[in-house]
Amino acid sequence: MPDPRRYDESLNRIRREVSPVRYAEELVEGGFAIEVADAALLHDGLNVADLAHVLVLRERAVVPDDAARRLLAVLLEAVGTPVAEFGYDAVHGEAYNCRERRFAGQIGRDAGWLHAGRPRREAVRIAMRLRVRRDTADLIEAAAEFARAAAEVAGEHAETLMAEQTYLQHAQPSTFGHYLLAMVYPVLREIDRLTAHLDWVNLSPAGAGGVNGSPLTGDRERMAEMLGFDGVIEHTRDAMWQADGLTGVVGTAAGLVTTLAKLAEDLEIWSSSEFGYLSLAHRHTRSSVLMPQKRNPYALTMVRGEAGILIGRATGMLAIAKSPSARSDNLIFAYGEVPRALDLARRATRLMTGVVGGLTVDSERMYAALVAGFSQAADLAEHVMTAYGLDYRSAYDLVGMCVRRAAADGLRGVDITGDMLDAAAAELAEVDPRWPGAPVFSGTDLREVLDPGAIVRSRRSRGGAAPDVVRGMTKECLRVADAALATVRARRAGFAAAESAVLRDATALAG
């Protein structure tokens, strides 16, 4: 008869060998806790990825039917369990370890079938792509809605005259509508880039196995189709370790919000008392708690700050991407950083959409500032060149001298006369021995040449500021934005339908 003491010693040894490792407190705090903090971002994707994996294993007769049903049942229970109640606890390891512990506690060894033909990283890579494709689609939608809102406002202000600025100084007459469209086109280009990133994200790493595939999961296209991916990542090792697309999508998100931050900076300046060109809706501002007269452009401050944060995250992604191949350190941090960056970019974009839609533009203040300056100077120099045959450099010097004299006398650009040009020409002849001389301008009617509205109406070349040209660009921007919205909403609906089908099939099989 066996010695009971030897049996107890053997059993205790086995228990010690299979019991969970007690991790060092500092490893829990500095390692697993950081990963577990991202569990809420990956939870839904992990559930869907695990369900699809079990369904494929059952289809291929790898896992017995009874075990598959029990495993699907606990996975479906996980789907309905809030993240906070699931049991993600860093003392047990990272998120995948916590899930394994929960499932093993519910159905014992049958939970082990979940590992057949698949390392943990494959499950998490799939979960991340399921999450990031939705986040990318949401950001594309937000960007397209901004483009649409800004284009509509631009169309409304196709004839709102203003002094276009470079280096924050008057340049030439233009319109607020033409200015605003200059912010729409970069956003439309970012939508194109984000769409390309979405194509990259929506490829499946499933079935890649350790590094070179797995005979257990078979045809990789099956899992890709089940999860709503457009196809598979061709190379299995690349499927597990590629990070370039993740750095790309975060960089593009940062670029999008940086464009919006440029707009935010301009609007903050132009809404100040010194300019008064426009005002933000009260719902996008915040009052001072000390100074009763102040309402601060809080929305613009947030967008500018969010752009800075996203630039930092894009830089951080590039920094961790330099890891040697087949290392998880870059992707471990990407699981949280990429969704959070895309979510922050979406929030900033939606905020600027609201700001633009709520603007009140003071067209009279814009026009008053325009006619108070000398933004017609370049057009006047071109008129002198084309009408009187003076080379442009001489015409430039002549008008420049005239403007200096007029400004000193408290006059404006619209006040310039032919007599003033003659006086400037005489002064140039005195100070510059190389001055070629100029025709007599006395009695010349310059009102049409100096009229800001006439100047703007003359800009009829492609992309110019003429109102009809601006309206044409507005129409095209709206068309492109609407097409992007329709496309991305259809794709997102397809993602949701595929994931719902996995849940439905798993529910039917689990009974």
What does this structure look like?
The chain is built from 20 helices and eight strands. With 511 residues, the protein is mainly alpha-helical. It folds into three domains: 14-116, Fumarase C, Chain B, domain 1 (Orthogonal Bundle), CATH 1.10.275; 121-168 and 176-368 and 476-510, Fumarase C, Chain A, domain 2 (Up-down Bundle); 377-450, Ribonucleotide Reductase Protein R1, domain 1, CATH 1.10.40. The strands form four sheets. A two-stranded antiparallel ribbon has the order 1-2. The protein has a two-stranded parallel ribbon with strand order 3-4. A two-stranded antiparallel ribbon has the order 5-8. 67% of the residues lie in helices and 5% in strands. Helix 8 packs parallel to helix 20.
Descriptive labels:
Ribonucleotide Reductase Protein R1, domain 1; 8 strands; 511 residues; Fumarase C, Chain A, domain 2; 67% helix; Fumarase C, Chain B, domain 1; 3 domains; two-stranded antiparallel sheet; mainly alpha; two-stranded parallel sheet
What does the secondary structure layout of this molecule look like, with pairings?
Elements: H1 4-18, H2 25-36, H3 39-59, H4 65-79, H5 83-86, H6 95-107, H7 120-156, E1 161-166, E2 169-175, H8 176-201, E3 203-204, H9 220-226, E4 231-232, H10 236-241, H11 244-270, E5 278-279, E6 286-287, E7 295-296, H12 298-320, H13 329-357, E8 360-361, H14 363-371, H15 377-388, H16 392-408, H17 418-431, H18 447-450, H19 452-457, H20 467-510
Parallel strand pairs: 3-4
Antiparallel strand pairs: 1-2, 5-8, 6-7
Helix pairs in contact: 3-4, 3-7, 3-20, 4-20, 7-8, 7-13, 7-20, 8-11, 8-20, 11-12, 11-13, 12-13, 15-16, 16-17
